[in-house]
């Protein structure tokens, strides 16, 4: 069974992690794609408790957008540095649930 698309979790609370470099190296070795999934749990809870249009939620969403942009830029630079192709995805919700679901579509 060939490895075609590897899923790696990108955490918003880390600047960067060695596991992403390992996943990129594995993708390169197997000529596979690398998909980075960044999960956002806090915004989901805030939306449920306060409502999606409250100032607190909008403020948090803006903060998350900055973090996501920085992480996506770093992820795409890693793809380029390793000479691999990949995708960037984000999801709102519990990380373990989102990764379990996304993992069904990756090797």
Compact overview of the structure:
This protein has 4 helices and 3 strands. The protein has 107 residues and is α/β, with parallel strands linked by helices.
How would you describe the overall organization of this protein?
54% of the residues lie in helices and 20% in strands. Helix 1 links the parallel strand 1 and strand 2 (33-40). The chain has 4 helices and 3 strands. The mean pLDDT is 91. The N and C termini lie close together (9 Å). Strands 1-2-3 form a 3-stranded parallel beta sheet, sandwiched between helices.
Give the arrangement of secondary structure elements.
Elements: E1 5-10, H1 18-29, E2 33-40, H2 42-50, H3 55-82, E3 86-92, H4 95-103
Using brief descriptors, characterize the structure shown.
107 residues; alpha/beta; 3-stranded parallel sheet; 4 helices; 3 strands; 54% helix
Task: For the record, give the distance between the C-alpha atoms at the N and C termini, rounded to a whole number.
Answer: 9 Å
Give the helix level as a range of percent: 40-55%
| Main sheet summary | 3 strands, parallel
Write down the overall geometry.
elongated
């Amino acid at each position: 069974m060939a490895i075609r698309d590897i899923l790696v979790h990108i955490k918003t609370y880390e600047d960067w992690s060695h596991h992403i470099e390992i996943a990129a190296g594995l993708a390169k070795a197997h000529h596979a794609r690398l998909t980075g999934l960044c999960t956002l749990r806090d915004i989901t809870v805030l939306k449920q408790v306060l409502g999606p249009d409250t100032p607190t939620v909008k403020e948090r969403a803006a903060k998350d957008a900055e973090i996501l942009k920085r992480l996506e830029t770093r992820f795409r630079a890693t793809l380029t540095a390793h000479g691999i192709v990949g995708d960037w995805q984000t999801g709102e919700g519990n990380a373990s649930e989102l990764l379990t679901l996304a993992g069904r579509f990756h090797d």
